[in-house]
Every structure is written in structure tokens, then in C-alpha cells.
């Protein structure tokens, strides 16, 4: 039991020990406590960060297993190509340039089959053309004598490197052969410069080209044969997800706008999260363009033929983003400080909610058409209902009340007086209604683009079975 006593105006704490005596309890010094806390922070701080990083990595792997599969495929490709470096017969067969095969796998292996094929073909063609030109220029320079040889080599590097660099600014070349142009510049410069001091230039170029072909072949085979991730399929799924997110965002935004303050539902937070899905649609342009470029490199696979109309997916994606811009503006109206009063909202709430419901149904049906690659017999009915809802909303706008009744006190009783609603109260609601009408028109254009895709890709009819 601790005892407390006053010694020279100071408190002193003592504690009883088993032998019956009491000992003075000395407080820990502040300096020692601070040092101990700092040491614990130095030890536990990095461990906590490592644990959080591992937890995030685990969640990423669970949510996106394709990325884990890609990592395993890269490891497999590097293990196979390393055999050319570890085994002496293979190492001597490529003339000691096995490291070029390892480097090729590192820089060529990409997430999708199309991206891997694109880089592999670009690297092989760039290396072959640059090597051939380099050997040819070296032969011409060698026949010109020692005096003019460095001049010819330097001038050829200047001309061809400048021309290849300029070609990278051409949109059609940059889209599909940018990496090949860069490899061409690198290889031609190395071959031309090193050929001035190396005697066996042709043998060296042959060995490096062989190792690069070995590396690209291993990458292509593993990418296509082991759990292939097709760029075309990824683009196909991305368009479907964007259509579904757009439908959810449209429904969520309209319901949130016309929801009364005192009638919040339990799923309000989920509804707000869904209404923000349009942001993913707005940020998908770069991904769609890269996937479409890589999909054109891929062979026929699954439901997609060799000349599948991937460009039409870009057109559909652009139209979907046009719809997302309307929803973004609609969300701006929801979060605006100037809001329409409830009695004005009630005049248009049913028509606006009905129109948004029909628009989302059309978007969901478009997602189903693209997903199943089968034409729909009910899409025309859904579009007709959407257009009819647009007509109803337009009629409601025409019959918008030009005045409202207000109760006022006059003498002993109440009197009713009519006054026009302020313009500042009418404009927010009219803006929302016009945005919904504009969004319906843009969805109609998206329907036409999906119909065009169905014709180009030869979608199956709704009643046909395979």
C-alpha cells in the first residue's frame, strides 16, 4: 500500500514491500522517458507503415487478381530467358549477348496481350531496320577511306536520327510505332558508332537481333498461352461498366435533388456514392484510347474477330462522356447554394424522376446489348418511353405556374394574394429540367452508336441461338 507524506513541503511516495519495510518510489526522469518513447517510435513507426503497405497490397491483389497473374507471368518469362545466361551451351550459342534477351523481356512484357505484341513487333522491326541500315552505312563508310569514314557515319546518324525523331510527332506513327521509332534511333546510333571500332560488326548485330527475337518470342507465347489478358476484352468491359455507372449516377443525382430535407432514407450514403460514378466515366478517355490501339494488334479471340470495329468503341465512349458532362452539371445544381423552393420542385419532381428512370433503363439495356453482343427487341420501346417522358416534361415546363398564392394578414382575417415567383428561384429548377432533356438527346445518340456497332460487329439477333 502506498503512503504519502509531506517532507520539506514536497510530496513523497513510499510503497510497502513484503518484509514489512517501506521504500521510496522514485519517479522516472523526464529525459529517460522521452528517450524511451523516441526509441519505440523509431522501431514501431516503420513497422506500422510496412504493415499498412502490406494490407493495401493484399486488398489490391484480392480486388484485382489479374494484376497478380500478370506479375507471375513476368516472373515466369524472366526465369525462362535467364536459362540462356545460366546454361553455358545456350550462353555460347548467342555469343555472350544473353543479357539482351533479359533486357528485352523487362521492357517488352506488358499487362495485356495487345500491348505486349505491339512492343515486341516494334522492338523487333526497329532493331532489324536500324541494324540493316547501320551495317549498310558502315559498309559505305568503310569503302570511302579512313578520312571520310567518320564524316559519313556522323552525317548518317544526324540525318536518320532527326528523321526518326520527327516521325514520332506524326499522330498515326506515334499511336502505333512510337516505341519502334525510339528503338530505331537507339539501335542505329549504337551500331554506327560502335562499328567504327568493332571489326565483327555483322556478327555482333546478328547475335543481338537473335537474343531480342528470343526475348520477344518468350513474352508473346507466355502472354497469349497462360491466362491471357486481352486489351479488346478489357475495352469491352470498360464500356459496359461506364454505361452502368452512368445509369446509377443519373438515378442517384435526380433522386438526391428532389428528395425533401426531412425524408432522408437509410441508403442515402450509398445513393450519393453511386451518383459520383460519372467521375470514373470522365477519367476513362486515355484508357479507352490506349486499349483500342492495343486491341488492333491482337489476333481473333473469344467473341471478337480479327477486324473487330474497335474504333466504334471509342465513338461510344465519347458519347457516354458527353452524357457524363450533363450529369456533372446536374450535380453542380444539387450542390448549389441557390435552390428552388419545395413547392416549385413538386411541380416537376414526378416528370423529372420519370424521365431519369427511363434514361437509366435505356443505358442499362445498352450495357446488356454490348455485354451479350446480341441485338435487343425492346430497346426501341425503351427509347420511345424515354422520348414520351421528354414530351411530358416539356409540357410541364410550358404549364409552369406563373404565380403562387401567399397567405397574408389583413385586419381580422387572412387574405390570399398572388405574386409571381422570383426568377432566382425558378432558374435552378428549369436548369435541372433542361439538363435532363439534353441528356436524353445525348443518350439517343448513344443508342444510334450502339446500333452501328451491332451492325459492324455482326451481333446476333435477339431470337437466334447458338
Report on the architecture of this protein:
The chain contains 16 helices and five strands. By secondary structure, it is mostly helical. The protein starts with a strand and ends in a 10-residue tail after the last helix.
User: Which strand-content bin applies to the residues?
Assistant: 5-15%
Strand arrangement across the biggest beta sheet: 1-2-3
Q: Rg from C-alpha positions?
A: 35 Å
Q: Structural class, judged by helices and strands?
A: mainly alpha
Oligomer: single chain
Q: How many β-strand stretches?
A: 5
**Count of DSSP H/I helices:** 16
The geometry reads as flat
Give the mean pLDDT.
Answer: 80
Q: End-to-end distance, in Å?
A: 88 Å
The string of secondary-structure elements, in order, is EEEHHHHHHHHHHHHHHHEEH
Q: List unreliable stretches of 5+ residues.
A: 1-9, 403-413
| Largest sheet properties | 3 strands, antiparallel
**Proportion of residues in helical segments:** over 70%
Keyword list:
mainly alpha, 466 residues, two-stranded antiparallel ribbon
Summary, kept brief:
With 466 residues, the protein is mostly helical. It has helices at residues 30-63, 65-86, 88-93, 98-108, 113-143, 149-167, 171-194, 201-225, 231-258, 268-275, 278-282, 285-295, 310-334, 342-372, 379-398, 423-456, and strands spanning 2-7, 10-16, 22-24, 404-410, 413-419.
Helix and strand layout, with pairings?
Blueprint: E1 2-7, E2 10-16, E3 22-24, H1 30-63, H2 65-86, H3 88-93, H4 98-108, H5 113-143, H6 149-167, H7 171-194, H8 201-225, H9 231-258, H10 268-275, H11 278-282, H12 285-295, H13 310-334, H14 342-372, H15 379-398, E4 404-410, E5 413-419, H16 423-456
Antiparallel strand pairs: 1-2, 2-3, 4-5
Helix pairs in contact: 1-2, 2-4, 2-8, 4-8, 5-6, 5-7, 5-8, 5-12, 6-7, 9-10, 9-12, 9-13, 9-14, 12-13, 13-16, 14-15, 14-16, 15-16
Amino acid at each position: 500500500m502506498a503512503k504519502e507524506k509531506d517532507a520539506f513541503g514536497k510530496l513523497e511516495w513510499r510503497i510497502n514491500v513484503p518484509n514489512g519495510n517501506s521504500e521510496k518510489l522514485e519517479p522516472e526522469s523526464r529525459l529517460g522517458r522521452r528517450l524511451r518513447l523516441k526509441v519505440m517510435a523509431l522501431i514501431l513507426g516503420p513497422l506500422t507503415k510496412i504493415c499498412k503497405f502490406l494490407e493495401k497490397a493484399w486488398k489490391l491483389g484480392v480486388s484485382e487478381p489479374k494484376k497478380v497473374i500478370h506479375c507471375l507471368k513476368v516472373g515466369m518469362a524472366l526465369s525462362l530467358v535467364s536459362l540462356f545466361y545460366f546454361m553455358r551451351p545456350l550462353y555460347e550459342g548467342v555469343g555472350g549477348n544473353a543479357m539482351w534477351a533479359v533486357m528485352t523481356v523487362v521492357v517488352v512484357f506488358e499487362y495485356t496481350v495487345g500491348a505486349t505484341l505491339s512492343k515486341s513487333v516494334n522492338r523487333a522491326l526497329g532493331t532489324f531496320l536500324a541494324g540493316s541500315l547501320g551495317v549498310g552505312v558502315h559498309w559505305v563508310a568503310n569503302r570511302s577511306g579512313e578520312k571520310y569514314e567518320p564524316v559519313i557515319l556522323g552525317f548518317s546518324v544526324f540525318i536518320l536520327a532527326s528523321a526518326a525523331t520527327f516521325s514520332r510527332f506524326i499522330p498515326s506513327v506515334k499511336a502505333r510505332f512510337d516505341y519502334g521509332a525510339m528503338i530505331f534511333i537507339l539501335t542505329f546510333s549504337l551500331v554506327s558508332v560502335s562499328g567504327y571500332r568493332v571489326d565483327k560488326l555483322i556478327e555482333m548485330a546478328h547475335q543481338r537481333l537473335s537474343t531480342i527475337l528470343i526475348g520477344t518470342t518468350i513474352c508473346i507465347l507466355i502472354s497469349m498461352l497462360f491466362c491471357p489478358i486481352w486489351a479488346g476484352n478489357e475495352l469491352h468491359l470498360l464500356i459496359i461498366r461506364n454505361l452502368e455507372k452512368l445509369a446509377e449516377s443519373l438515378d442517384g443525382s435526380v433522386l438526391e435533388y428532389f428528395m425533401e430535407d426531412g425524408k432522408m432514407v437509410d441508403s442515402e450514403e450509398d445513393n450519393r456514392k453511386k451518383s459520383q460514378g460519372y467521375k470514373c466515366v470522365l477519367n476513362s478517355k486515355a484508357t479507352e484510347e490506349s486499349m483500342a490501339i492495343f486491341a488492333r494488334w491482337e489476333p481473333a479471340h473469344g467473341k471478337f474477330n480479327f477486324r473487330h470495329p474497335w474504333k466504334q468503341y471509342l465513338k461510344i465512349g465519347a458519347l457516354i462522356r458527353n452524357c457524363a458532362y450533363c450529369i456533372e452539371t446536374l450535380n453542380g445544381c444539387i450542390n448549389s447554394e441557390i435552390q428552388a423552393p419545395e413547392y416549385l420542385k413538386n411541380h416537376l419532381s414526378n416528370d423529372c424522376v420519370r424521365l431519369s428512370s427511363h434514361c437509366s433503363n435505356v443505358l442499362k439495356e445498352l450495357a446488356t446489348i454490348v455485354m451479350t453482343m446480341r441485338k435487343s427487341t425492346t430497346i426501341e420501346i425503351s427509347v420511345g418511353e424515354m422520348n414520351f417522358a421528354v414530351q411530358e416534361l416539356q409540357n410541364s415546363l410550358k404549364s409552369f405556374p406563373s404565380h403562387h398564392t401567399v397567405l397574408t394578414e389583413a385586419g381580422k382575417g387572412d387574405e390570399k394574394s398572388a405574386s409571381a415567383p422570383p426568377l432566382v428561384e425558378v432558374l435552378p429548377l428549369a436548369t435541372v429540367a433542361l439538363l435532363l432533356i439534353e441528356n436524353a438527346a445525348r443518350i439517343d445518340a448513344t443508342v444510334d452508336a450502339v446500333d452501328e456497332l451491332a451492325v459492324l460487329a455482326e451481333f446476333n439477333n435477339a431470337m437466334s441461338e447458338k
